[in-house]
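Morning!

This is the sequence you dropped in the shared folder:
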Amino acid sequence: LNPSLARKADNAGSFITEMGKYEGKITQAFVVTAKTGARGVGMSFESGGQAANFTLYTHKSSGEAIMGLEQINALMTCLKLHGIKPVMGKIKQWDREAKAEAFVEGELFPDLANKPIGIVFETEAYFGGNGNEYSRVVPKLFFQAGTGLTASEVLDRKTVGAKLDKIVASL
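The structure's back. Tokens below.
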């Protein structure tokens, strides 16, 4: 008997579906290009046996910066990174045809992965390809795991955070 494996079975395939504050790590971050030509960063996040996948679009197809760029900079601030560069590597993605996870070649941002980070998720509605309405979690705010400091508080060299609890309470 391996009690650790038994505990993992309870959380297998468990996705974050509730808004709130989560601490964990980004397991992979990679370049994404939408059918529209918009570019961004796709991410997989794990927290306490639960997972979330999301994309922060940073630029329109024209190259114009959009809101996701602010979020990426906030994430970098909370991780104390001054820059990130993509490198070629293997991205784990869901293969709809094979109905299993598969690895594909792509551009990764290894500097964003496997470091403690906090994310406040909110929910948003979206319509699937079948026309049905669904709900998903999307990042509202990044914060330093452990300290609870937001990006602006890190930049202001605060030692005690005040914004995180207010934002979580407003959800």
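Headline: The mean pLDDT is 91.

More detail when I'm at my desk.
O.
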